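Troubleshooting log. The previous run stalled partway through. Resubmitting the same two chains, unchanged.
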Amino acid sequence: MSDLVVTPGWYMALAAVLFVIGASGLLLRRNALVMFMAIELMLNSVNLTFVAAGRELGILEGQISTLFVMVVAAAEVTVGLAIIIAVFRKRSTASVDMLAGMQG
Amino acid sequence: MSVEVIVFVIFGAAAIAGAVAMVAARNPVYSAMGLLLTMFSIAVFFVMNDAHFVAAVHILIYAGAIMTLFLFVIMLIGVDRTMDPDEPLPLQRPLGIGLSGAFLFLILVAGRTAWVTGRSDLGAGDTNGTIENISDQLFGTWMLPFLSTIFLLTIAAVGTIALAQFRAVTLVEPDHPEADVTPDAEEVTVR
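Second attempt completed without errors. Output:
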């Protein structure tokens, strides 16, 4: 057991598990806020993959990509939460099931 | 067993537990706390992968800014409303779980064949993510993408302000079509 080392494959497997948990949260929950958190979780698991792969390949670009993903996530959260609040003011709900106003 | 294995197991379990708690919790505040636990664990993994600066930024942005924003919105919307009382579609839950399991299986199978298994000769291997190394890259090779994030953040800020200003995102109730039609555009002139 002494030669048991943590390879980047471990990190990538863990990131895959986290990504799938996030995707299942997106599929199973109806609260728009929790769905947003699930998207954040998926973005973060991809960040972990970037960093692990960058270390394995011996390049720094993985960490640079992570920084850009963080910028996109921050922008997305501000706009998304503003939309959720705007919808909540109008309809007093954050459940995506109630928002069937555009259904034909 | 080395220290790295022990740390990986502990924080990996914490990350997965936090993620599962986020999905399973009824109360959105508990979901936010579970996500926070996952974020901290991922920051630990960043440190273990030599990404020190990224780990610090990750903690600052996610735990500091984004989770605070989430909690603020949860408090604004109201904590006591427990959402999704029961599932309206009968097949949604088993189908979602089954699809997720199949997805995970396929990712792991595909990954085992494709993911990197050894140090390549692409780079010499200085992946120590200190501020100096990161900024050498960011303000050298990646200057243009870095500057273009300025536009992204500006557009996001302008969009957020616009969404906050025009209060009536007129989703007209179908049974009162004329109730909310009166546009707020005149009200929302300069203030």
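Takeaways: Chain B is about 65% helix and 0% strand. Residues 52-77 of chain B form the longest helix (26 residues).
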